[in-house]
Every structure is written in structure tokens, then in C-alpha cells.
């Protein structure tokens, strides 16, 4: 079974920083892309940032200049460095990945369990 394990969420004051991490494990042949989404209470899940195996990145306009996504391909791990946090960043953050699995062989989209980020004002 393929799974994503997230960590790094917590409670911080506005202007503070957090670093989220997400590690993929299981019968993975390759990972095409990894990313972060978030969902605030009463709102739909939205894209935060994505990164490909070639290190191309994409960010939501609301986090550009404040958040940085990176990955360690050898460890199948993706990170999200969040600086200058604002109260509106408060949400459950979910890791996701598009992978090729070996058992069975094929493309799969998988999600982490989510980690809560709370930013106080």
C-alpha cells in the first residue's frame, strides 16, 4: 500500500514560520509530481503549491513570495516552508502525489491525512 505521512503543523502567531514535510512510502516505481493543498473551515480544498520531479514549481497567488516548496527525490519527500504566516493561512494542509505504483502497476493519485496549521493574530 502506498501512503503519504505528513508532519510539521501547529499553532503560530502571525508573522511566524512553519515547515511541513511529507514522505511517500510503499510500492512506488516513480513520483511524477508532489504538492500541497489546504482546506479552511467552510471552504473547498485549494491548491497551495506543486513541484515536479524536474523541480518545476507552481504556487497559488496568495502564497507567492512567502511559501517555498521543495523535494528530496531520493527520499520521496516534499517540504513546504511557510514564512510570514497570516491568519488567513489557517487551514488543514494536505500533501498529495501522482505516482506510478508497482503493485499493481499503474498511475495513482494519493493524499496524506492532513496536518493542521493555525495562525493567531
Q: What share of the residues lie within helices? A: under 10%
Q: Roughly how many Å is the radius of gyration?
A: 14 Å
The average pLDDT value, as a whole number, equals 94
Order of helices and strands: EEEEEEEEEEE
Please describe the biggest sheet, giving its number of strands, its sense, and whether it closes into a barrel: 7 strands, mixed
How would you explain this protein's 3D organization?
The chain has strands spanning 3-7, 10-13, 18-25, 28-39, 46-52, 57-59, 67-72, 77-82, 91-102, 105-111, 115-120. With 121 residues, it is mainly beta. The radius of gyration is 14 Å and the shape is elongated. It starts with a strand and ends with a strand.
Explain briefly what this protein structure is:
With 121 residues, this protein is an all-beta fold. Helices cover 0% and strands 63% of the residues.
Write the layout of secondary structure elements.
Blueprint: E1 3-7, E2 10-13, E3 18-25, E4 28-39, E5 46-52, E6 57-59, E7 67-72, E8 77-82, E9 91-102, E10 105-111, E11 115-120
Parallel strand pairs: 2-11
Antiparallel strand pairs: 1-3, 3-8, 4-5, 4-9, 5-6, 7-8, 9-10, 9-11
Kindly list the characteristics that best describe this protein.
121 residues; mainly beta; 7-stranded mixed sheet; 63% strand; elongated
